[in-house]
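Sequence in, structure out. Go.
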Amino acid sequence: MSLTGGNRHDVTQLLPLLDKIPAVAGVAGRPRRRPDALLADRAYDYDKYRRLLWQRHIRPVIAERGVEHGSGLGVFRWVVERTIAWLHGFRRLRVRWERRDDIHEAFLGLATCLITHRHVQRLC
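Output:
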């Protein structure tokens, strides 16, 4: 994972993010290193990135700019927005105060563990 400033456009980090996806264990054979499809909002609607995704054999499912809402991607986006809201529940993560990125990532991992623990407790 690479940390960037808050004033960077998200699409500039799309390809580095895809490169950081770890191998996914599954059935016998070579482990998967990339997703089948990428779901994204209108901020990622650039022909350049669509072509780069197709070159990597990833199907882009990206909402188009200038088209009315109703593509159905909002259902999946809500999950991401909800998770970010959970992380913002931890004041230390709301604004990045740490200068060192390893410390910030450690707090992010700790927050993820706490969120998961809370949800598992609810199930038990």
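Check: The chain has five helices and two strands. The mean pLDDT is 82.
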